[in-house]
């Protein structure tokens, strides 16, 4: 039974009604536990938990320090391409946006790698639009072969692939793959992904299972916060996470919190999530899954990221560029996927981490160990 089968048994409306019906007593009961169920997660992300955010934050901070220590892993995205064969209503790389398309060649990838290595990064995330004809598996395999010897961890956020493709890329040193479902609501998904291979909801939904079957070390999940009701979407993602954890126990899992950002096109965020709600969500995830990697990107403001840092986050991006060649090859902001909000240098982010009493971690993995 795949997770697609599981999701098909879950009613979005019934799950939302159950979540919205939670009471203060349900929240207090969840806070009093050491192991939390789906019902507890519903209570913790429900509107009625808002007055309990401080208590949730204290527990989340203590649990994160117990499991991860005073460490924050740093990474940077390396955009290889902004070419895309999909139409996504919210994305700057969408095929129907009229921006200059660029796919980095070997020499340009080398220059970007030099710039990131000079900043100290040992963990990079390769990012592309979804255009298999110009940035397909052969291109990704070559990029991995080029970059893996220079970095301790090379992960990817690219189009979903078949299991044999993941197995091939793993042979080239692939460490992890982030494959965000964007939303678990089929109707909303169809509305925002009308053209291209990404329109296939079920193929994307099954990608984490293909990654698990391929033995990929880290699998990242996420929903686009703002696309629809974030509470129900995150509840569905919690079901997905538990399904994967029970079957692919040798893999590590991560969750990110991408709030929709301004980008090329005229998309307006349908159901924005506020700062306090994002704090509530991060703390709820930590209390639900104590060993889960929680990642926060430069989409968020610098001062907000600094305040969130001790509350459950374990991985931060820094000094990010969201266009291909943004570090050393092509500074044209018109090529960006979206605008970032925390534009601090790596040095400034490191100082903020240290000021909070944490240690920036550049490397915690060595291939071959």
TrEMBL record:
CDD domains with a match to the protein in the record: Radical_SAM
GO biological process per UniProt: thiamine biosynthetic process
Phylogenetic placement of the source organism: Bacteria, Pseudomonadati, Pseudomonadota, Gammaproteobacteria, Oceanospirillales
Gene symbol of the encoding locus: thiH
Domain Radical SAM core: 70-305
Superkingdom as given in the UniProt entry: Bacteria
One MF term in the entry's GO annotations: iron ion binding
Keyword set, alphabetical order: 4Fe-4S, Iron, Iron-sulfur, Metal-binding, S-adenosyl-L-methionine
Protein's recorded name: 2-iminoacetate synthase ThiH
Listed SMART domains: BATS
Cited SUPFAM superfamilies: Radical SAM enzymes
InterPro entries associated with the record: Aldolase_TIM (IPR013785), BATS_dom (IPR010722), rSAM (IPR007197), rSAM_sf (IPR058240), ThiH (IPR012726), ThiH/NoCL/HydG-like (IPR034428)
Pfam families: BATS (PF06968), Radical_SAM (PF04055)
Cofactor dependence: [4Fe-4S] cluster
């Amino acid at each position: 039974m795949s997770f697609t089968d599981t999701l098909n048994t879950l009613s979005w409306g019934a799950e939302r009604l159950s979540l919205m019906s939670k009471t203060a007593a349900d929240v207090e009961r969840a806070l009093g536990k050491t192991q939390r169920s789906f019902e507890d997660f519903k209570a913790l992300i429900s509107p009625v938990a808002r007055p309990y955010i401080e208590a949730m934050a204290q527990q989340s901070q203590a649990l994160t320090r117990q499991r991860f220590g005073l460490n924050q892993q740093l990474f940077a995205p390396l955009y290889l391409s902004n070419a895309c064969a999909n139409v996504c209503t919210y994305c700057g790389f969408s095929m129907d946006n009229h921006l200059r398309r660029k796919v980095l060649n070997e020499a340009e990838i080398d220059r970007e790698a030099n710039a990131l290595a000079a900043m100290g990064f040992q963990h990079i995330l390769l990012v592309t639009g979804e255009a298999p004809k110009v940035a397909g598996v052969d291109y990704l395999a070559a990029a991995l072969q080029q970059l893996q010897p220079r970095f301790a961890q090379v992960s990817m956020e690219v189009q979903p692939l078949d299991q044999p493709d993941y197995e091939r890329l793993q042979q080239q040193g692939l460490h992890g793959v982030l494959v965000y479902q964007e939303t678990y609501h089929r109707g909303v998904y169809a509305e925002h992904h009308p053209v291209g291979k990404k329109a296939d909801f079920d193929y994307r939904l099954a990608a984490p299972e293909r990654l698990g079957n391929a033995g990929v070390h880290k699998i990242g999940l996420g929903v686009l916060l703002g696309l629809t009701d974030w509470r129900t979407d995150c509840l569905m993602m919690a079901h997905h996470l538990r399904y994967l954890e029970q079957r692919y126990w040798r893999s590590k899992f991560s969750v990110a919190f991408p709030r929709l950002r301004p980008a090329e096109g005229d998309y307006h965020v349908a159901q924005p999530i506020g700062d306090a709600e994002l704090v509530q969500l991060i703390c709820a995830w930590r209390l639900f899954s104590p060993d889960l990697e929680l990642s926060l990107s430069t989409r968020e403001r610098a001062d907000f990221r600094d305040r969130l840092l001790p509350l459950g986050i374990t991985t931060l991006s820094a000094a990010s560029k969201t266009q291909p060649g943004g570090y050393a090859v092509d500074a044209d902001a018109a090529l960006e996927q979206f605008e970032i909000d925390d534009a601090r240098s790596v040095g400034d982010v490191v100082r903020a981490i240290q000021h909070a009493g944490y240690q920036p971690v550049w490397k915690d993995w060595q291939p071959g160990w």
